[in-house]
Each structure stands twice: as structure tokens, then as C-alpha cells.
Known about the structure:
A: Glutaconate Coenzyme A-transferase, 23% helix, B: alpha/beta, 9 helices
Amino acid sequence: MATETEKMIIAASRELPKETAVFVGTGMPLLASVLALNTHSPNILLVYEGGGIGGNPTGRLPIQVSESLTYENGVAVGSMDYVMSLAQAGWIQYGFLGGAQIDAYGNLNTTVIGDWENPKVRLPGSGGGADIASLCERTIILMRQDRKKFVPKLDFLTSPGYLTGPGEREKVGLPANTGPYRVITQIGIYGFDEQTKQMTLLQLFEGYTLDDVQQQSGFPIAISADWSYVKAPTELELEALHALDPDGVVLA
Amino acid sequence: MIKGGFKLTKQVSIEEAVASIKDGSLLALGGNALHRSPIAFVQELIRQDKKGLSVIKTAGALDIDLLALSKSISSVYAGYIGFEMLGLAQNYRKGVQQEEIVVHEHACASVIAGLRASVYGVPFQPINGFQGSELPELTGLVKNVTCPFTNKKTAVVEALRPDVTVIHANIADEKGNAYVDGSLFEDLIMVKAAKQVIVTAEKIIHSAEWKVTPQVPGFLVESVVLAEKGAAPGSCAPLYSIDAEQVTEYLQNPASYLEKVKGAVTHV
């Protein structure tokens, strides 16, 4: 029986196409990306914020974005400036994000809880988040879902989703055809409705109900007319995933 | 005048190098998160009780958190402060929440852009990727201008010019030339942007002995310090990786870690 974390990672890996460049963060995104590389996307290019490109380590996985394992057996090692400018010039299609808070339009907060001037909890900050959210064609957001995280209004908008609705990204000058693509939580997989640019349930994980989708969110979530259940992880996917993290750094 | 000059030898002890840092200086620290950050230098800053420092860092971890705990810093220019999967930077967090530390709220890329402006000797640097975030308007560090060529709204970052940049390298020589294995992170940009540069290194060789090509040119470097394990408990690839046990010990009991740092005699 797969755990919720395993199900989320496997679902995220399935979202990646055969060939693409993906901006990888540590933790679940890393496992999802390498899982895709080892299963259905052999030509995926992993780009790490610390400067490593195309790393394919043979031993354990990198657990931090600046580790030397991020460029072991890789294509190149540059600097953060090198990889960030790849994104700025539009060369990176996919990116992963997480956050402390998300709203209906996929805007994210990783900066503060409470007022920025007088914070209740100071969080790590943007890191590369604002860039990834602004510049990648398709961002995939991985986070747990509850009413504290799924909020009607963010305490701080660190990384832009669809801002306040259709056309707003374009209005502020963000590149065309970019923005949040999927949000994957323990409850389901969400996309963004073409008309409203608001979060919409596409698929539900077995064991959860449509009621849970709403109960665990501070804003209303539309349900796609043709919603379905997420296909259970295959033996192959689970085996490949466990092989990546034998010590359970992320999975445990 | 060339900023580093051409002294016969630039090697000094870590105590001497740190003694040259004035309270209230704006420092840029090389490395990234727990990797090749100049931790030995940071620990000596704490032993010499430096105060009111401001620090520029793309992504900080132990360095910034330790300086927050020792109450050595009054402001931070950074994109991210935290220990990634190991947890939040609790002492930095407390320092900010208690309003002892001013956050100049950046993203990693905007820190780099600010430094790049200084590298090129211009007052600001245009940057792509800040449209729609609240970062620009709140902090005033990123502003929007109209591009004079295309009339498009363009984000620009004010130049960031460190008083002193400190980087940790794998190898350096007596002239200040330095070699970094693997990712350079922002070290070279920080070196070129700063008024003054200090390099700490795992190993110091004579300038006639190079077998690899140094990336940091000695003429930009003021002084060189031998600091073996100078990035520990962080990593310095390929020589050593993160000492997870020590990092965890720090996260669990930062106060006792700080006492150890203060009590330690430098190892050089």
C-alpha cells in the first residue's frame, strides 16, 4: 500500500512529458523528476538552482539543490546565475514549487505568515520560487492540503499564479503561456479552469471524497465535470521510487 | 588602483583577516546554503564579536542563522534563508520576528542581478521574472521602469556593492588566485562586485604549482587565509560532504553550538 507522499510523487512524475527541461527542487520534486527520468521520460533534463545541470547520480540522491550530486554524471555545472538566466531567457519549460499558503489562482506564499512588516512567522523567502512561477511554462505545485494552507487571501504573494484571474499575468508583463499547471495534494490533482483561471479538481486520490476537497480548503474549488480517480501506483513505479530513496529521507 | 593589488604574499591568519572587518560592514558570503560557505570565517567573526553587519547571500543557512544567534547582524539581503529539508532557520526567524534583523526581501536571482550591476559598473540591472510578485513593491529593491527601446515595463534591481566579499575555495595561492571545484555558485560575481575580497581555502599552494586553472584572479583579492575544513559542517565538494550529525546538533541545540564556537581556538 503506497503512502500519501508516494502517491503524490508518482502522480507528479506522470505529469512530466517524455522530453523537457525541468527546474528541480529538493524533496518530493526531486524524486518525482528522477522517477520520470528512470521510467517514462529518459530524455528529461534536470536543472538545479545551485548550478548543476543534467545530474544523474549513481548512488544516493541529492537532498539539497546545491550538492555536488546535482551535477554528478551531468551535462554541465555553472552557477545559480547560469541556470536562473536559462529560465529568464525562457529555456526551462517545467518547474516545481511548494509553499506555506496557496490561493484559488495558484498564487503562493513562502515569505511570511502575518504582516510582512511585523511577521508572525518568518519563512525562508522566495529562493527561486518567484522566478520559476514567473518564467516556467508549466509549474507543478506539490503541497499538503488543509484550510491553513489553502486560503482565500495570502498573507504575502511571493510567487505569482494567475494573480486575480484571466489575462492578469499578461497584464503585468509575465511571459505568455506560463503559469501554474497542476497542484498535487494528498487529496487530489487540480488544474486551472481555462475561463476562470481558478483551481479545479481533475482527479481524486482513492480514499478521499469530493467533500474532503472542499472541507480542506478555505476557498471554493470547482469540480471538473469529467473528474476521475487517480490510477493507483503500479508495482514498477513503486519499486523505482523506493530504489531512489532507500534510506527514506523523503519517503519516510 | 587594482583593488587586490600585487603584494608579495597575501596570506594572513584568519584572525588577521577578520580583524580587518569593521563593525557595520556590508559583507557578501560565497557558497550556497550548506555548500562551500565560509563557515570558519563566520565563526571567527563571532569570536571577535563583530556587530551590526549586513550580509548579502543568495541562499543562506548555517552562516546566516549562526550570525543571527550571536546577534552579529542587523540586516540581510537574501533570497532564501533556511536548511531546506532539514528545517527552518529558527534563529534568523526569531531575529526577524523580534525586529532585530531587517530583511531586504529579495529572490536569489534579484540578489545576483544587484551584484551584477556592480560588476558592470552600472546603477541598476534589468531582470526578468518579477512581474506579479509582491516582492518588488514592498521592498523597493526591485522597481519597474519603462524600457527606452521597446516601451515595455521592465523590472530593475539597484546595484549591490559589498564592502567585503568572503569566499571559500578549494585551492588558493599566495597571490590570491583561487580555484573552486564544481559549482561556482555566485562567488565570481560577488568577487567582482565587491570593494574588497578575502579568500579562505582548504589548501594554499605556491603560484608556480597550479595543475588546474584558477577561476578567481588574484589581482582582485586582498588576502588569502588557510582554513582547512573551512566550510564544515557544510560541504566542500569533492573533499567532504555535509556533516549531517553536526548540522542536526546545531538545529537541536544552537546555544550550546554557539558556546563551542566561541570557546574554540582557531585551528591555523
